[in-house]
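Query structure, 171 tokens:
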């Protein structure tokens, strides 16, 4: 049907209903970008208020299927300006706004988690750095301690050698 509408559009390029049907068929086939283009152009060029409203509403649906939530929101708002009694447009607008709010909250949570992780990693890095400095400090104090112990032994050894030498002299 999609190809048939495309061919028919060539024969009747000004037929707005034909374009609308082409957009609906593209949408049903999952060709959301094609549907978006058809409905966007049709909403701009038609003077028929009902067709403009339906095209704008369906444009919102095509945006939604492509996860273009901000654009979908605007399209549903525009569709409601054209027909404030369109309950489907109202319902879809509410749904899109809820999803946008959820996305914003998820984005905020993700950024907060990144900050936490960054600060946590910095804290870990600081702790590791302090731990390494403490290890070096401990090593240095151990080295100094060992040197003192060695020098005491050297003195003891020297003292006993000196005493022996003194004893030897006396004898």
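Result returned for the query:
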């Amino acid at each position: 049907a999609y190809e048939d509408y495309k061919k028919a559009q060539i024969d009747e390029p000004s037929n707005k209903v034909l374009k609308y049907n082409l957009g609906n068929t593209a949408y049903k086939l999952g060709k959301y970008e094609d549907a978006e283009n058809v409905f966007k152009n049709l909403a701009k060029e038609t003077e028929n208020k009902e067709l403009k409203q339906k095209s704008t509403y369906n444009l919102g649906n095509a945006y939604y299927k492509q996860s273009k939530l901000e654009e979908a929101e605007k399209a549903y708002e525009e569709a409601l300006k054209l027909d404030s009694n369109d309950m489907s447009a109202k319902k879809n607008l509410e749904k899109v706004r809820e999803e946008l709010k959820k996305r914003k909250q998820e984005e905020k949570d993700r950024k907060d988690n990144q900050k936490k992780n960054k600060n946590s990693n910095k804290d870990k890095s600081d702790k590791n750095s302090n731990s390494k400095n403490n290890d070096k400090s401990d090593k240095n104090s151990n080295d100094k301690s060992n040197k003192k112990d060695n020098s005491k032994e050297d003195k003891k050894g020297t003292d006993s050698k000196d005493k022996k030498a003194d004893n030897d002299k006396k004898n």
